[in-house]
């Protein structure tokens, strides 16, 4: 084996870091109660509105994306109120756990892993088992590689003036066409270590006018994730508590880059890489785990029959320094996941497909070397024509 192995991330978070964002973080020496930081904060919030594709308020929290998910629950739901959760993976289950932790009555529409949440079943629950204060779902379920139809769901929930649609778009933002204002997505959640190409530690939340009205009615105690308190402070370029100043500086640089590239082009890039990966997997005789609408954020691939996917993950890492994700929970050992969100390009994807071919050969599987790369290249040529 060669003596030099360059480690590369192909995981759905953390993702590869944008160099400009790293540089900005290293050179940022800001106190958060200065006009310099207030200006940076206001500019970053405005750039986040562009990234979210919304005119709604956007808030920043120093936390993981799960913190913002918890904030959405505590700001909207009072104990005993009903939440409708669409779940088809690990992160749908997280919505259930969060809502139950704060005393909500949870009604679920559950689909098997790899399937999409049924919008027809969500419609039926809304009509027959309400009233619901919140509907909770993922835009893209990164544990399974599935994309849910939040556009259709938004149009349904819009007909219920006392119900808000909350979308975990932590891997959906920057990879998926999302139109919160047009579709009626009342709260949309993002995270810094995904398509924004900066380290973990920041969560973002967009909040609609309808959601603000419902937040006023919530009786659940909250302190750190108090959306109304943060709205008041962040409108002045401040935060209620010490912000992650260097991460905000890095985020500002990344959002400048996204504006330069174009939000739609960032989304198209993820779609191209995802389609190329799906074509490569099929050419190599590998099945795709997503049985319905596949996500552009991450592709979940079935391991060959009789092979633990962890062996593929290990081979890619030890031989090539390519870090890919195993399955989660009950899917561990059955699937592996390749990400496409953020700072990836076609060369990255061609390289990891080539590495996958060699890994499969090393593990004893009959693979025609170059067949997966060729399939990926053909998709690239078709989409970039």
Unreliable runs = none
Number of strands: 14
- Which fold name is given in CATH as the topology of the largest domain? Aspartate Aminotransferase, domain 2
**How many structural domains can be distinguished in the coordinates?**
2
CATH class of the largest domain: Alpha Beta
Percentage of residues assigned to helices: 40-55%
- CATH homologous superfamily annotation of the largest domain: Type I PLP-dependent aspartate aminotransferase-like (Major domain)
Compute the average pLDDT: 96
Strand content: 15-25%
Helical run tally: 14
- Separation, N- and C-terminal Cα atoms: 38 Å
Q: What is the 3D form?
A: globular
CATH architecture of the largest domain: 3-Layer(aba) Sandwich
Order of helices and strands: EHHEHEHEHEEEHEHEEHHHHEHEEEHH
What strand order characterises the main sheet?
2-10-9-8-5-3-4
Radius of gyration over all CA atoms, rounded: 21 Å
The helix-and-strand class reads: alpha/beta
Query: How would you sum up the major sheet?
Result: 7 strands, mixed
């Amino acid at each position: 084996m060669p003596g030099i192995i360059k480690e590369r991330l192909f995981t759905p978070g953390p993702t590869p870091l944008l160099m400009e964002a790293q540089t900005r973080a290293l050179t940022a020496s800001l106190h958060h109660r200065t006009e310099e930081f207030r200006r940076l904060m206001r500019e970053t919030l405005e750039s986040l509105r562009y990234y979210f594709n919304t005119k709604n308020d956007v808030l920043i929290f120093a936390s993981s994306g799960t913190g913002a998910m918890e904030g959405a629950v505590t700001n909207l739901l009072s104990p005993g109120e009903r939440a409708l959760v669409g779940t088809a993976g690990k992160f749908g289950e997280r919505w259930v756990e969060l809502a139950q932790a704060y005393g909500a009555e949870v009604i679920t529409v559950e689909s098997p892993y790899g399937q999409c949440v049924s919008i027809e079943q969500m419609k039926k629950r809304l009509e027959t088992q309400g009233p619901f204060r919140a509907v909770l779902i993922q835009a893209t379920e990164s544990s399974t590689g599935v994309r849910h139809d939040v556009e259709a769901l938004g149009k349904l929930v819009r007909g219920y003036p006392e119900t808000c649609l909350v979308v975990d778009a932590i891997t959906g933002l920057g990879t998926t066409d999302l139109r919160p204002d047009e579709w009626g997505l009342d709260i949309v959640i993002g995270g810094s270590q995904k398509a924004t190409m900066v380290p973990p530690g920041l969560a973002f939340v967009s909040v609609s006018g309808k959601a603000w009205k419902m937040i006023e009615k919530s009786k659940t105690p909250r302190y750190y994730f108090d959306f109304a308190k943060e709205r008041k402070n962040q409108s002045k370029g401040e935060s209620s508590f010490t912000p992650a100043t260097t991460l905000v500086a890095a985020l500002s640089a990344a959002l400048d880059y996204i504006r330069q590239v174009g939000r739609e082009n960032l989304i198209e890039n993820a779609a191209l890489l995802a389609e190329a990966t799906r074509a490569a997997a099929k050419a190599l005789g590998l099945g795709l785990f997503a049985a319905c609408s596949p996500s552009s954020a991450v592709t979940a691939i079935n391991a060959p029959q009789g092979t633990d996917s962890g062996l593929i993950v290990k081979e890619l890492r030890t031989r090539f320094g390519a870090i890919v994700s195993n399955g989660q929970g009950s899917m561990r050992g059955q699937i592996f996941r390749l990400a496409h969100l953020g700072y990836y390009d076609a060369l990255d994807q061609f390289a990891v497909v080539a590495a996958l071919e060699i890994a499969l050969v090393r593990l004893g599987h009959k693979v025609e070397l170059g067949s997966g790369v060729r399939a990926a290249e053909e998709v690239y040529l078709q989409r970039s024509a």
